[in-house]
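Researcher: Here's a chain I'd like modeled. Treat it as a single chain, no partners, no ligands.
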Amino acid sequence: MAYSGVLKTLIRSSYLGSTTRNFSLVSNQVSNHTAKWMQDTSKKSPMELINEVPPIKVEGRIVACEGDNDPALGHPIEFICLDLKEPAVCKYCGLRYVQEHHH
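Model: Modeled as a single isolated chain. C-alpha coordinates:
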Protein backbone atom coordinates (compact mmCIF):
# COMPACT_ATOMS: atom_id res chain seq x y z
CA MET A 1 0.00 0.00 0.00
CA ALA A 2 2.82 2.42 0.81
CA TYR A 3 4.19 1.77 -2.68
CA SER A 4 1.18 3.28 -4.50
CA GLY A 5 1.36 6.42 -2.34
CA VAL A 6 5.00 6.99 -3.31
CA LEU A 7 4.14 6.44 -6.96
CA LYS A 8 1.29 8.98 -6.83
CA THR A 9 3.59 11.57 -5.25
CA LEU A 10 6.22 11.00 -7.95
CA ILE A 11 3.67 11.32 -10.73
CA ARG A 12 2.07 14.42 -9.20
CA SER A 13 5.37 16.27 -8.65
CA SER A 14 6.80 15.50 -12.09
CA TYR A 15 3.50 16.40 -13.76
CA LEU A 16 3.10 19.75 -12.01
CA GLY A 17 6.74 20.70 -12.42
CA SER A 18 7.75 20.45 -16.05
CA THR A 19 4.60 20.28 -18.16
CA THR A 20 2.95 23.46 -16.87
CA ARG A 21 6.03 25.53 -17.61
CA ASN A 22 6.56 24.00 -21.06
CA PHE A 23 2.93 24.43 -22.01
CA SER A 24 2.91 28.18 -21.29
CA LEU A 25 6.09 28.52 -23.33
CA VAL A 26 4.50 26.71 -26.27
CA SER A 27 1.27 28.74 -26.11
CA ASN A 28 3.30 31.98 -26.15
CA GLN A 29 5.17 30.83 -29.25
CA VAL A 30 1.91 29.85 -30.95
CA SER A 31 0.22 33.20 -30.23
CA ASN A 32 3.30 35.12 -31.44
CA HIS A 33 3.33 33.08 -34.64
CA THR A 34 -0.40 33.71 -35.17
CA ALA A 35 0.02 37.45 -34.53
CA LYS A 36 2.81 37.59 -37.13
CA TRP A 37 0.54 35.87 -39.67
CA MET A 38 -2.32 38.29 -38.97
CA GLN A 39 -0.12 41.40 -39.40
CA ASP A 40 0.76 40.78 -43.04
CA THR A 41 -2.58 41.34 -44.77
CA SER A 42 -1.02 41.03 -48.25
CA LYS A 43 -0.60 37.28 -47.66
CA LYS A 44 -3.63 35.04 -47.76
CA SER A 45 -4.45 32.96 -44.70
CA PRO A 46 -4.15 29.17 -44.94
CA MET A 47 -7.96 28.94 -44.91
CA GLU A 48 -8.26 31.35 -47.84
CA LEU A 49 -5.63 29.41 -49.79
CA ILE A 50 -7.28 26.02 -49.23
CA ASN A 51 -10.68 27.44 -50.23
CA GLU A 52 -9.21 28.42 -53.62
CA VAL A 53 -8.62 24.73 -54.39
CA PRO A 54 -11.72 23.63 -56.35
CA PRO A 55 -13.65 20.64 -54.95
CA ILE A 56 -12.05 17.37 -56.05
CA LYS A 57 -14.38 15.15 -58.12
CA VAL A 58 -14.48 11.54 -56.97
CA GLU A 59 -16.18 8.41 -58.29
CA GLY A 60 -18.00 6.50 -55.59
CA ARG A 61 -19.55 7.46 -52.26
CA ILE A 62 -16.49 7.47 -50.03
CA VAL A 63 -13.11 9.16 -50.36
CA ALA A 64 -10.02 8.63 -48.21
CA CYS A 65 -8.14 11.90 -47.66
CA GLU A 66 -4.52 11.86 -46.47
CA GLY A 67 -3.72 15.54 -47.10
CA ASP A 68 -0.70 14.78 -49.29
CA ASN A 69 0.69 11.95 -51.38
CA ASP A 70 3.76 11.94 -49.11
CA PRO A 71 2.73 10.41 -45.75
CA ALA A 72 5.33 12.56 -43.96
CA LEU A 73 3.51 15.71 -45.10
CA GLY A 74 -0.05 14.45 -44.79
CA HIS A 75 -2.41 13.76 -41.90
CA PRO A 76 -4.17 10.71 -40.43
CA ILE A 77 -6.38 9.06 -43.04
CA GLU A 78 -9.91 10.47 -43.01
CA PHE A 79 -12.75 8.59 -44.71
CA ILE A 80 -15.35 11.05 -46.00
CA CYS A 81 -18.88 10.17 -47.13
CA LEU A 82 -20.09 12.09 -50.20
CA ASP A 83 -23.85 11.48 -49.99
CA LEU A 84 -24.78 15.15 -49.58
CA LYS A 85 -25.19 17.61 -52.47
CA GLU A 86 -22.68 20.16 -51.14
CA PRO A 87 -18.93 19.37 -51.10
CA ALA A 88 -17.70 17.37 -48.08
CA VAL A 89 -14.75 18.98 -46.25
CA CYS A 90 -11.82 17.11 -44.71
CA LYS A 91 -11.63 18.00 -41.01
CA TYR A 92 -7.81 17.90 -41.06
CA CYS A 93 -6.74 19.81 -44.17
CA GLY A 94 -9.90 21.50 -45.47
CA LEU A 95 -9.81 19.95 -48.95
CA ARG A 96 -13.30 19.60 -50.44
CA TYR A 97 -14.69 16.58 -52.28
CA VAL A 98 -17.77 16.03 -54.43
CA GLN A 99 -19.19 12.88 -55.95
CA GLU A 100 -19.01 12.85 -59.74
CA HIS A 101 -22.32 11.70 -61.22
CA HIS A 102 -22.23 10.03 -64.64
CA HIS A 103 -25.47 10.24 -66.58
